[in-house]
Structure formats: C-alpha cells, structure tokens
Design goal:
Layout lengths: L1 H20 L7 E6 L14 H10 L4 E3 L5 E3 L2 E6 L5 E6 L13 H13 L12 E8 L2 E6 L6 H5 L9 H7 L13 E7 L3 E6 L13 E6 L3 H9 L5 E3 L6 H6 L3 E7 L3 E6 L11 H4 L1 H9 L3 H9 L3 E3 L22 H11 L5 E6 L3 H15 L4 E6 L2 H10 L4 E6 L6 H8 L13 H12 L3 H18 L2 E14 L2 E2 L15 E2 L1
Parallel strand pairs: 1-10, 1-11, 15-16, 15-17
Antiparallel strand pairs: 2-3, 4-5, 5-7, 6-7, 8-9, 9-10, 11-18, 12-18, 13-17, 13-18, 14-18, 19-20
Helix pairs in contact: 1-6, 9-11, 10-12, 14-15, 15-16
Length: about 500
C-alpha cells in the first residue's frame, strides 16, 4: 500500500510539473503556486483567502496595511475623520487609470462602494453597513457619511471592500464581471483556466509602474502540498504559499530556496454549539459551561501546536494573536489541568461526557481532531470524530446540526472582523449560537471609538465574557508558510499573508 501510494503521488507530481512546463514562457514571468483554485475574481462576490492573494496583483485598494498593521496609502493618498467621527474624507491619487483606460476618480469610488452595498450576492454588503452614503466633493475628493463612528472602516477598505473596479466594465458585464475582471492594479487579466492557471500581464499604465519588474504573473493551483513543493524544487514554480509545516525545515536547509513565516491574523478554534439549535441542550458540552471549561483544561495548546502543526503556530486563547496591538491581556492562556477538569466534570454530574467533534477532511484538521480526542480522553471525555467535506460542514454548522466543530478563520487586521461575525447575536457566521447582550455591547463599543486604548477596554470586556461562556475554544494562530527561489528578492511578509508584487525581482 505504501509503495502504491508513493507511485500515485509521484504520478501526480509529474502531471503537475508537465502542466506548469506547458504554460507559455514570457519575459520575466513570475510563477506562483497556490494551495487551491480561487473562487470568482470579482471583489464584490469573492469569498476565499486564496482569491485575496490573486487580487493583490489585479485590484488596488483605497488603502493597504504594512508589516506592523499600520494603514498606508494606496489609491487614497490621505484621509481625515470628522470631529464627531461620523464621516471620513479621502483625497484620491490622481493620474490613475483602470485597465480599460477609464479614469479612476471620486465617481468611481462612489460607484464601487454602492456596488458592494447593493449587488445581489455581495459578500461586502455586511462589511459596509456603517456607510450611509458616499458624496463626491470634487473629482479627487470623496466623503463617506457614516451612520455612527466605525473604527474598523479603514481596515475593511484595505481588503476587498476597498478594491476598485472599472465602473464601465462592471456595468457592461454585470454578474459576469468576474470572468474578465478590470481593475487598476499592477497586472491586468489575460486568461483563466479553471483548476489550471490564472494569467495576468503587466499593466503598462500602472500608477506605480517603476515598482513592477515582471511582464507576466501566472498563478497555478496545486492542491497537493508534496506536488506544490516538488514543482518549486524542480524550478517550475518560483514561489509557493502554505508549505506543509513538516516540510519547512528541509526547505530551509536547501540553499537554493528561502522561506518566510508570518504569524497569521486569524485563529484555529473548536466552535461549540451552545445555542444554535436544540442540539446544544442535548449534550452536556453545549448545555453546561463547567463541562466546556473542563474540556478546555484537558487541552495542552503547546503540545497541540507541536504535534498538529510541527511547531508552526503560536498558542492562543482569543481571536487575535498575542502579538496584535489590540490583544486583551486580562484573560491569560489557560494551562492544562486534568485534575481540575475531572473535578469540574464530577461537579457537573457528568464524569464521562460524550460528544461528536465535526472536522473538515484536511490533513491538518484531522490531525488536530485526533490530538484533541486523545488529550480530552485523559480527563474523561469520549470524543467521536466526524470527518466532513468542508463546504458540507459549513452548511451543518449554519443549521446547528453539530455539537463541536474544528474551524479555522483566516483573519483580518482589525479584531472586529474576527469577533463580530462569529460572536455577535446576529453575526452571519455565529455558529455557536452565542447570544449575550453584554458581549454585543462590547463589540458595538469597540466600533464606536477610534482610540486604540478605548477599543482595547471594550475587547477586554468581551474577552471576559467569552472566557466564561466558551462558545469557542481558541487554540492557536497558524504561521503562514512561504517558500521561494533564492533568486527572488523584495518579498515582504505582511500578516495578512498576501504576496505584494511591488518591488519583487528575479535576480
């Protein structure tokens, strides 16, 4: 069986190498290996993390973030909040054009924000509900009028909500825009072959063209970690994202390559059904917070990171990593305490509780579930693992048809996007069913003030509530792992794990 499996993997590698080799050569082409094929290339409709990697070459945003999560200019050169923080005025970069030659200006910004807010199927609508309207002040000045102060706004505009597409092209294409996207980024769309390649060519009229040193960039989805790495090692790829943790040391020892580690902005957690459906009350884990505390105390985060992630993660117990400037320090990471866990279960009257842990079918998720199962058993838990295809598992979680769920969130630079969707009573991805007015108020308050110190106070209140109720057991924050040819310079590891092509060179 092992020999047969090895032959299958070798055959997959050869097929993938041949596919990459057949990609047309082009002067100064950068070839990037992706862990999946992105969804639609329309920033209004897109949902996937890997799609955001591709958008970094295609669609510039109003603002961006740097290595320290500071908001920095991109299509907007400056911004100013009103004294009451209920509006923000942007000065726009002049001389920018979209890939179809249409001008970028205040009218284009107004169009894009309204498209995000009104287009059927928009995944940006919920992100921009705070914007009451967009006013064009002059051709290069635009004001966002807010329903109330909204601290996460700039962070959201540094992602897909801030991406600008050509109004002319978007109006003409409608919901088919993603098949031939037209933006204002450094590269323009050439072709896409599903599950095979996405090809962009350098946009000669890019506003920052001096920072672009490639004529073409090709994104190639190669799902198998071993195959993706083999393509890098054979020279068929120049850069790969999400290297398997088990491969990082070997790649790092090879002088032909460089590696990068970035502590992610998201988290790996176990979400618990505490109120999403009737199943919450049919299981002691969902019904009794003492059982959830015992479950958490049965887990050793450091050991989980070493076993499930080969050490390539940071243990954590909240929605952002401890390195984040808005990380609440009032709730420290719990240490494993099996004796206390057993005492809590005895107090709750369920010394041997049983529950089903739903997990996606990926290798990492499976390994994590098995480690959790073994650790929790030492405290008396009987954990049954239910392996479920990822999209199916999301559907079951949304319906509350689960008891506990291994779920990872890729994360955003502002904590609001890591908390409100998952913890707010009406949050779109509140799979736990948490409904707590004090928690909702803490999240509301964190949005209403721009001062980081005041926002942190609100998150400390939220951390206390989450620690008591445990709708999610946060475990760790993964390292985003990159490997690339040693000939590539200018790589900037930014916490959102999106590869910026500006200033990259193949020497």
């Amino acid at each position: 069986m092992k020999f047969t499996s090895w032959l299958i993997r070798l055959a997959m590698a050869l097929v993938a190498v041949m596919a990459v080799a057949q990609t047309p050569t082009h002067a100064q082409t950068l070839r990037i290996g992706l862990a999946e094929d992105p969804d639609v290339l329309d920033p209004t409709l897109a949902r996937t993390f890997v799609g955001r990697i591709v958008f970094a070459a295609l669609c510039d945003k109003l603002v961006d973030i740097d290595e320290k999560l500071n908001i920095v200019p991109q299509l907007a050169t400056s911004w100013q909040f009103a004294p009451d923080n209920k509006s923000v005025t942007f000065k726009l970069r002049q001389g920018v054009v979209f890939h179809d030659g249409e001008p970028f200006n205040a009218e284009a910004v107004k169009f894009n924000i309204e498209r995000h807010q009104t287009m059927p199927g928009s995944n940006r609508r919920s992100e921009l509900t705070a914007i009451n309207g967009v006013d064009v002040i002059d051709p290069y000045t635009v004001r966002f009028d807010l329903k109330a102060p909204f601290a996460p706004l700039l962070s959201l505009l540094s992602d897909r909500a801030g991406m600008m597409v050509s109004p002319k092209a978007a109006k003409a294409a409608g919901d088919k825009f993603g098949a031939n996207p037209v933006c204002s980024g450094p590269f323009k769309f050439v072709e896409r072959v599903a599950q095979d390649r996405i090809v962009f060519d350098r946009f000669p009229n890019y506003w920052n063209k001096a920072a672009i040193h490639f004529d073409r960039v090709v994104y190639l989805p190669v799902v198998d970690n071993t195959v993706r790495l083999a393509n890098l090692q054979s020279g068929q790829l120049d850069f790969i994202e999400r290297v398997a943790p088990s491969d990082m040391q070997a790649v790092g020892r090879d002088s032909r390559f460089k590696v990068a580690r970035i502590v992610g902005l998201g988290y790996q957690s176990i979400t618990i059904n505490i109120g999403k459906s009737d199943r919450a009350q049919q299981n002691p884990l969902g019904k009794d917070p003492r059982v959830r505390e015992a479950f958490e105390l049965s887990l050793d985060r450091d050991a989980i990171v070493q076993v499930a992630m080969e050490g390539e993660a940071t243990p954590g117990n909240l929605w952002v990593p401890p390195s984040h400037p808005l990380y609440p320090k009032n709730v420290p990471v719990p240490k494993r305490d099996v004796a206390k866990a057993k005492a809590l279960l005895k107090e709750a009257g369920v010394p041997n509780p049983s529950f089903t842990l739903m997990t996606p079918t990926t290798n990492e998720a499976q390994k994590l579930a098995q480690v959790v199962q073994a650790m929790a058993s030492e405290a008396g838990f009987d954990v049954k693992i239910q392996s479920t295809e990822f999209s199916t598992s999301l559907g079951l979680a949304d319906k509350g048809e689960y008891e506990a769920y291994v779920l990872e969130w890729s994360g955003r630079s502002d904590p609001d996007a890591n908390t409100t969707p998952h913890l707010y009573t009406k949050g779109g991805q509140n799979y736990s069913g948490l409904s707590d007015p004090a928690a909702d108020k803490a999240m509301d308050d964190s949005r209403l003030v721009l001062d980081p110190a005041e926002r942190l106070k609100a998150y400390e209140r939220l951390a206390t509530i989450v620690h008591e109720k445990r709708p999610l057991i946060y475990l760790y924050h993964r390292n985003w792992l990159w490997a690339y040819t040693g000939k590539l310079s200018g790589v900037r590891p930014i916490p959102d794990a999106l590869l910026r092509l500006q200033d990259l060179k193949l020497n």
